[in-house]
Every structure is written in structure tokens, then in C-alpha cells.
Amino acid sequence: QVQLVESGGGLAQPGGSLRLSCAASGFTVSTTAMSWARQAPGKGLEWVSRITSNGLYTYYQDSVKGRFSISTDRAKNTVYLQMDSLKPDDTARYYCLKGWDLSSLRGQGTQVTVSS
Q: 33, 38, 40, 54: least CB-packed within 10 angstroms?
């Protein structure tokens, strides 16, 4: 069964860091195009970061460029989103997606709150 389970969210102070994890089952993340998206309260789902199926290319929304980093771990079949220099505007529920389309299969999400 294809499944994605996100973890690693929580409360962080502005300027702090969090690392989100997305454990996949039923398929191999290192040969699949994967992405992270987020949904802030009262707003729609927006993509944050993407990685190609071969892992060679990554893409970021302008607002997170230089602060976030997406990667995959073949051995753990897990996708990560390293988030540094967090801002209050990063507060949202973060989802891991199997693919780049926002309608792709996703997990239940993990909440990230950035506040002092």
C-alpha cells in the first residue's frame, strides 16, 4: 500500500530550524519525483520544494529559496525538508507529496508554527 507519513513539525522561534521527514512505503522515493507543499490557515495549498526522480535537481518557491533544502535517503526511503532561518510566515501544515502536482497523493501533514 502506498503511504506517506510526515513528522518533525513543531514550534520554532523565528530564526530557528526544523527538519521534516516523510517516510514512504509502497514505492521508492529515490526513483520518484517528490515534493513538499504547505497550507497556512485560511489559504490554499502551495508548493514549497520539489526534487526530480533522479535526485539531481531541486526547486524551491522564491520565499524559501536559500533557507529550505529538500533531500532523499535511499536507505530509509524517506524525504526530508530541512528548514533554516524560519519566519512567522512559514507557519503552516506541511505535506509530502508523491509527485509534483498538488493533487498528488500526500500524507496527513505535520504542523509547523514559527512564533516567539
A: 54
